[in-house]
Write a structure and sequence with these properties.
The complex is a heterodimer. Chain A has three domains: about 110 residues, no CATH class; about 190 residues, Rossmann fold (3-Layer(aba) Sandwich); about 35 residues, no CATH class. Chain A contains 14 helices and eleven strands. By secondary structure, chain B is α/β, with parallel strands linked by helices. The longest helix of chain B is centred in the last third of the chain and has 16 residues. In chain B, strand 6 and strand 7 form a beta hairpin. In chain B, about 50% of the residues lie in helices and about 15% in strands. Chain B has two domains: about 180 residues, P-loop containing nucleotide triphosphate hydrolases (Rossmann fold, 3-Layer(aba) Sandwich); about 90 residues. The chains are: A alpha/beta, B alpha/beta. The interface between A and B is large, with 37 and 39 residues.
Amino acid sequence: MTGLAGAHLRGFLRDLRAAGLPVPVGRQRDFLCALTTVPPRDVRHLYWIASTTLTTSLADKEAFDPVFAHWFAGSGLPEVVETDEPGDEGVGGGGDDAPPDSVMREGTGSAASWSTVERRAEFAVTTADEQRVLVRLRRDLPAALPEIRSRRRTPARRGDRLDVRRVHRDAWRTSGEIVRLRWRRHPQRQRPVLVLIDVSGSMKQHSRDHLRFAHTVVATCDRAEVFTFGTRLTHVTPALRKRDVDAALSQLANVVRDADGGTRIGPSLGQFLGNTRHLRMARGALVLVLSDGLERGDCEPLTRAVRRLSLLAHRLVWWSPLACDPAYRPVTRGMAAVVGHVNKLAGVRDLETAWQQVNDRL
Amino acid sequence: MNEHELAERMRAERYFADEGLLTAVYLALTLGRPLLLEGEPGVGKTELAAVLARVLGRELVRLQCYEGLDAGQALYEWDYPKQLLHLRATEAQVGEVYREEFLLERPLLRALRKPAVLLVDEVDRGDSEFEAFLLEFLGDFQITVPELGTIRATEPPVVVLTSNRTRELHDALKRRCLYHWIPFPGLERERAIVRAHVPDIEEDAASSLVRAVSGARRLDLLKRPGIAESVEWARGAVALAHNGDQWPVALRRALGLLIKDEEDMALVNAHMDELIAP
């Protein structure tokens, strides 16, 4: 592919990369092969050829469509999306026909609204005392989690299914004579854990410890996912994967933008439940919600979300700092609706009380 | 077979693909690459593979993925009892029992041995271990059996992978595939599908049903009905209509075939009048 058309295609592919859509060489080759074997009839056809070979998920279309429109449909410049960082500046040389290097896609402001005030959380450093509690938590947490039988079978001393492969291997040593039977069984494995943390203003003094607890969960459990919510939902598991708890929390402060703000528990949980990929994290899992349940406004979405969550989860546990008070009764509108659907409502206000709950097998 | 013929033959099998899907399928066939299909449940991802098998006159080999699927169930397994019996019976050398006749073929191996359409269904339900051994297969269409060597495809299979997007697939897997997202069909196409599958339904009735389904998809439902559900709904309503019900009444009574969740049912019932307005 040479000449004008080639330059045009190269420009198109280069812009895709600039738009944040990584197109590996193999896929570019596919695209060019496709063009030579199936010559496109019109622009629509070309669109489908390009999207089949160059994108790998529905989300890619967001970046792909504007670039395609710019290069082939002549519909003006790619849409400029608000950027957090200056990002990709090195979009090489660019011919005369190169469009402005504009599109960066991470962190679009789509979730912002007029009622949402962005606040960055600040977290104090973990003290030596707290470190000791964290050590205890790390030690005791895995044993406290509910278990489920794994789907894979592994070799075991006693089991329910003959391990024919191993029996067979052993039999070679004894010239085909079976001397000993070997077995496989389903081992027990931890259920997944899903932690949903309220970081709104009313939880301000507890969210620091709650996030530390979440860090321990991510560090010790095989399958753990953590979300924070205040006025919006944030997936924070990747940020919590840092080994050092303070490093993880300071990174978290960059991600969680709605800390210490208002509360919209119901809509945030609803947002969680509206995403099929997230639903999978809750299915059959131990779901821990760390919130005081003080919902502003309509409680109906909260009730619906919690009911759905309790149907999905293996066990739904609600930790509220208010419940630490022995005189506490869940009578606020939010909690009164929720309490019928949770398996356990417990009082947790800091790491120590969290550890007590863990010791109590959650 | 050119693209036009492909579309004709698929239509003859009562599968109505739009231009995007046709292009994707045609590219998968001409470039010999696996095709990864994503889309809401019930838009015809699995059905496409079955239709392709009929169109191409190949066998459909289906591998349903689930957590814990291992090589023994997806690729091959040695037939140990047969090997042992053979050794005992003939006092043969050990090497003799590692031959193809002692190999039990599982779906992926089977798809290599004869011209096939391989459907790897709901690949997102499998775990990453499974994706890992799928890679060698999809890259070169070959399987390595350590005792025997590498088995290559006589004729590369046509591979269709489907995913419901419950988790992100590995990049390495996605890189080897062509990708197409199947959206819900437009009114026109869905009516054609419903009429093809439920020949008894009248033109007007089909239109109102399809409009109601697309209206229902715009509601905030937990599970949006797919094409499979609207075909079932049409079938049910036609059966009731034959039984003497008026059409709108029949639609209402058969609603359980379209909506499969109690909360959704309440929501749809509340909007039923506007949905099936003439």
